[in-house]
Design goal:
Blueprint lengths: L1 H15 L5 E11 L8 E9 L3 H11 L4 E7 L3 E8 L4 E3 L8 E7 L2 E2 L17 E8 L10
Parallel strand pairs: 1-8
Antiparallel strand pairs: 1-2, 3-4, 4-5, 6-7, 6-8
């Protein structure tokens, strides 16, 4: 009987432990111009965490919060969002290479270092706020870069 209990108790403890990946709620915000400007669209979405910005956008489409989104892939950098359609407006980056307008991606107010799925940023976790900011963007080197 003791050997049975010695086997059952550790198994029960393993089953009771929280899983490494769990369904969690995160908030998606869409902003115009700057992340400090109040969001024009917000929704809570359920995703398996930890995750990335692409999964958050996909969950927003699945829940009906967004109508769709599109991206452009860059080797080694991941996918960069080119359009987000919230059902009211389909805002897309400037077709001239995105130098005039672009979608910036933030997690909890920290601007991402790469694409929405390249793994270079901290993963999106439970309770996080994922922001996409449609903004005018000129490289830090200004016109000299062009």
């Amino acid at each position: 009987m003791r050997s049975l209990l010695a086997l059952v108790i550790p198994v029960a403890m393993l089953l009771a432990a929280s899983p490494a990946h769990a369904a969690s709620s995160v908030t998606l915000e869409l902003h115009l111009g700057d992340a400090s400007v109040p969001a024009y669209a917000t929704c809570a979405v359920s995703v398996t965490t930890p995750t990335d910005g692409a999964a958050v956008l996909n969950a927003a489409v699945a829940s009906g919060c967004l109508k769709g989104w599109s991206y452009e892939s860059f080797p080694g950098l991941g996918r960069y969002v080119t359009c987000i359609d919230d059902g009211h407006a389909n805002l897309c980056q400037d077709p001239a290479g995105g130098l005039a307008t672009a979608w910036l991606y933030d997690i909890n107010g920290v601007q991402a270092n790469g694409g929405v799925d390249d793994g270079r940023d901290a993963p999106v976790g439970a309770g996080d706020v994922v922001q996409f900011v449609y903004t005018n963007w000129i490289p830090s080197c200004g016109v000299a870069c062009l």
